Each structure stands twice: as structure tokens, then as C-alpha cells.
Amino acid sequence: MALTRAAFDQYMVPNYAPAAFIPVRGEASRVWDQSGKEYIDFAGGIAVNSLGHCHPALVGALTKQANQLWHVSNVFTNEPALELAQKLVDATFADKVFFCNSGAEANEAALKLARRAAIEQFGEQKNKVISALSSFHGRTFFTVCVGGQPKYSDGFGPKPAGIEYFEYNNLEAFKALIDDDTACVILEPIQGEGGVVPADAAFLQGVRDLCTQHNAYLIFDEVQSGMGRSGSLFAYQEYGVVPDILSSAKSLGGGFPIGAMLTTAEIAKYLVAGTHGTTYGGNPLACAVAGAVIDVINTPEVLAGVKTKHAQFVDGIQAINAKYPVFSQVRGLGLLIGAVLTEAYQDRAKEILNIAAQNGVMVLMAGPNVIRFAPSLIVSDEEIATGLARLETAIAQFVA
């Protein structure tokens, strides 16, 4: 007998509040629950399912590797990890890669590396971390404190020192904070949890220039914006602003847990043997799947398709809004899109999510006032049309 949603409340720690239905099967951008009801998936596992559900290339890579080698630890290396590292280096600014299991771990590694490298070169005083308000960099205690959202970091005791915050996209506010004691600056090129807010190009370039001027490392958190979601493999390529360190996860594994930190050889040398580690990082299963993901995504057809599909989503959402004006703005890059609720509907994004699910379409929130879309990068035209039609029905019910 299948377990029901009530089993979550009985057995699971209550840090989540999952939906009433339980998905049990997925194919492309469709999901079915225990009762057989179909949903169009515009949530993508929160920007994770970059190639939808059960993509044959990913299933094939995982199945093949599962019959060869599962885990050897970092006492040894393995071929899938080496192959994936080579692919990421060939496709980016980076010379070196560190593999882990999540975006939080990738950011933790990036922050530790930046501080270590800065301190070893310039002394103990060069340890300040600068981050944007309303950012999100993970749920470890260090990364959640760096994130600049007290609602996630308060209540756990004393916080790490040396972290300062400024308003996103405000170059003057940033300029007032950075100094020669700054070790690093960490930014999302597109703020995800903060409301799907793309960076201004001039802001990013200004931050890059000031980091260079003050010998501070620029970290781009591309956990959500990376792996094709912007229409380029990584969003920094879309902007033409190159970081010193980059974090990746979510879409990198297409649903299989993996994270990566990318950097240059000059910076990587400060993480000598024994300074950082992770038991499962570079796992052959994860790296084999991620290697297949990058092979599919890093092609002109898929990346160009992301930009085409962006226009389809924006046009569709705006058409809905013309009938039922609930959104004040539609923003984002590629297939990371946010629809901002008007003043009249403030704090009601969760209601829309629930009504949308009842009508067979899965969407996300980015705070209480933004509906977020992060679908598969290869979602079909038919799936987009069907999902948006279901969303329109949901919005009509919401305003009724």
C-alpha cells in the first residue's frame, strides 16, 4: 500500500511543508502523482531538472556507470570525475575543479578558498566577505549567514564574523563597503530566491573592476543561473564579466546530486592536500550523469532554444496578465523567470502555487510576491502551451 502525504508528518523532520500530492513518475516535462493525475512541470525541481525527467542520455549514463563503479572515495580518483572536470575546464574560464554534492557545499568551498588565498597572501586581516542583501548561497551555517536573509540565519546562535551586506544592483553601496581587507565578494548573476532579479551589466562590471582594484576575489554563485539556464552555459558568459571562482550545482546533475567549484590554477593552489574535502564529492555515478548533462546542454541548439523558449514564456505570461492583471513585471533571463505580483496581491504567491497545482501545473515561488518558472531547458512548445493554459485557468480562479 502506498504511503500518503500524512506519512511525512509522521516520520519526517518538519522543516519542509510539501504539497498534498506525491509525484511518483516523470517523463520530459510531465509528472504523474499517486492517483495518476498529470502535471506540467514548470518548477524543474527548483532549477535542477535541466533536461526534464528521465532523459534517455542521463538514464543511459547512470545505468552504464551503475554497472561499473559506484564509489571509491577521494583516496583515489576516477574516470567520470576526470572527464567531467575536463569538460568544465574546456567550456569555461577555469583551470581547476573541485567536486562536491550540492550548491551549499560548492559555495562553502568557494568561500573557504577565497579567504584562505587572501589571508595567505595579504595577512589575517584580509578576511572580509561581502554579499548582497536578499541573496541565497546555501543552508550550511556559513553560507546561510553569507546569504543576507536573516529569516534563514537567525535563531542558531552567534554568527560568523567578517560578513557585510549591500543592496543588489547598487554599485555605489557596494563601493562604500569594499576595501583592502576584503577577501571576496559573492554574487548571484541572477538573484533566485531574492525574487528572480538579473544583475545590471554595468553593476557586474563595476563590481569586477573594484574587486581587481582591491585584490578581492569575485565569486559568482551560478548554482541556479548556470548550466544553460540563462541561454549561455553560464550566466557570466551572457554578461561578459569573468569571476575568479564559480559555483555550480542544481542543473549540473540534471537531478542527480552534484556540485562543483571552478577556479583558476593560481587561486586553486591555496587548497593544498588536507585543507578541504568531502566524502562523496566526485562520485563516479554523479560525474557520469553530469558529463551527459553537459554534453546535451552545451550545444548551440539547446542554448539558442533557451532564449526562444524565454520569449514564449514571457509572451504567454503577459497574455494571461492582459486578461487577469495580477503581475506588475515579468523579469529574468533564459528559463529562470519571475512574475511579480501587483500591490493588490502582495504575499499571495503561495495561493497561486496551490491553485496551479490543482489545475495540473507545477510552478515555484521566489519570496511571497514572485511566481518563479524554472522548467526544463528542452521543454517542448506543446508542454509550454499546455502548462500556460492551465496556469491561466488557475489565475482566473485566483482572482475570482
From TrEMBL:
**Has the keyword RNA-binding been applied to this entry?**
no
Q: Reaction catalysed?
A: N(2)-acetyl-L-ornithine + 2-oxoglutarate = N-acetyl-L-glutamate 5-semialdehyde + L-glutamate
Q: How is the cofactor bound?
A: Binds 1 pyridoxal phosphate per subunit.
What pathway does this protein act in?
A: Amino-acid biosynthesis; L-arginine biosynthesis; N(2)-acetyl-L-ornithine from L-glutamate: step 4/4; Amine and polyamine biosynthesis; ectoine biosynthesis; L-ectoine from L-aspartate 4-semialdehyde: step 1/3
The PTM N6-(pyridoxal phosphate)lysine maps to 250
Q: Where in the cell is it found?
A: Cytoplasm
Co-factor(s): pyridoxal 5'-phosphate
Miscellaneous remark of the record: May also have succinyldiaminopimelate aminotransferase activity, thus carrying out the corresponding step in lysine biosynthesis.
Family label: Belongs to the class-III pyridoxal-phosphate-dependent aminotransferase family. ArgD subfamily.
Q: Know the name of this protein?
A: Acetylornithine aminotransferase
